[in-house]
Amino acid sequence: MQDASAQNLDLSGNLDVSGNTTIGGTLSVIGNETVTGTLSVTDATTLSSLSVTGNETVGGTLSVTEATTLSSLSVTGNETVGGTLSVTEATTLSTLSVTGNETVGGTLSVTEATTLSSLSVSGNETVGGTLSVTEATTLSSLSVTGNVVAGTIDSGNITGRTGTTITAPTITASGNLYVGQNTNDSSTKSIFFGGGFGDNAYDHAVIENRIYLDNTQQSELLLFKGNDENGTTGPDRIRLRGGNIVFDTYPANSTTRTDENIRMTILSNGNVGIGTVSPLRALQVVGDIYCTGNISCEGYMKDNDKPRMRIDRFNFTLPSGTSSLLNGGSVTLQSNCTVTSGIFIATIAGIYACSCKLKLPNNSGNSSAIEWFRRAIDGSQSTYEDFLMWVPAGVNGRRMVMSHTIIDLNVGDGVLPRNVGDTVSDCTATFDVFMI
């Protein structure tokens, strides 16, 4: 058959057309229909199977009970296929219902609701209504202005449009997953998680990007898990788990998310560091600590890094004048400090305790008076206290005394004891200086 023109065409066998077919009424074929040119039908079309190598245009409803293979398909009404629909080029439909599989090599465009068993589109798919797929779905890109309901969605980039709800047990994006649009306004963008036992509500587990101060750009990423506090039903909790957990801030405006400025670190052994990424204790703070309450400690408070030293001197002559009593003897317990020319130099700013235990020989005709001096960074010395540890002359059996003071030193400041009394020989003394 070359050219055919008819109002209605009803065949109980097969229809094979090598040219073009135009039907102004209804086309009904119980057998197979094969068209190598263009098939154009203005009303409803019912077929057992349909194969068109050119284009097919149907103004009404297309209903095919078996496999359908087309180069391109345009239906302004409804399309129902009981078997498999395969289209190699662009496809435009009002509604689409396929109980088998649908494969489209080009672009699939549907303006209303679409229900499929499975869908494979190597081009783009655009649905103006609701897309519902019960099995696996593979797409190059997907744009839905309504809602998406699917078993599994596997795609490159997935973008949720304004007013679009994407519901699926599994969403796999081999590229990026975008939530919300760049709206340049104060609208909130949220990810809601389905609820579980006793917390069966979407607003109980939310990740949200929101403006926290009205009419500003001050935004926050809110991580929320509700709704039970401590008790028989709680607590609900947020859990972070990793080899190390770090907390990072940026000191200036930044959109570079990979830059590091770590403020606090939790190591895998549980040590917590503030101001350090390698804490050596359960809690290590590098910097000052300000406390308005109480600090309780059931053990000893100790820090091996605090500056300290002890000097023991035996059978030495106690000098008089400007000489430091720390010159000579054996130094022990020294840590993180410097003793230069008999002067203890502070390496860390803070409060230091200074003590001197002194034993003089009996029945000496000389007396001593010990006094602590501050030495400034420029080398100048000044009396720190007006109190003297005085040992009178000629006393027997009571020639052992102790001097103690507390002094505030900056880095580089020094402290030293001096004897402003007489020179005394055969003395024994212990001097301690340590940071409190």
Descriptive overview:
The chain is mostly beta strands and 436 residues long. It folds into 4 domains: 4-178, no CATH class; 183-239, no CATH class; 243-288, no CATH class; 308-435, Jelly Rolls (Sandwich), CATH 2.60.120.40. 0% of the residues lie in helices and 53% in strands. It is built from no helices and 37 strands. The protein has a 17-stranded parallel beta sheet that branches. It is rod-shaped and about 145 Å long. The protein starts with a strand and ends with a strand. The relative contact order is 0.06. The model has no long low-confidence stretch (mean pLDDT 79).
Radius of gyration (CA) equals: 45 Å
Strand percent estimate? over 45%
Average pLDDT, to the nearest integer? 79
Percent of residues in helices: under 10%
> What does the largest sheet look like?
17 strands, parallel
* Record field, number of beta strands: 37
The helix-and-strand class reads mainly beta
Alpha plus pi helix count: 0
Distance between the termini: 109 Å
Envelope shape: rod-shaped
Low-confidence stretches: none
Total domain units: 4
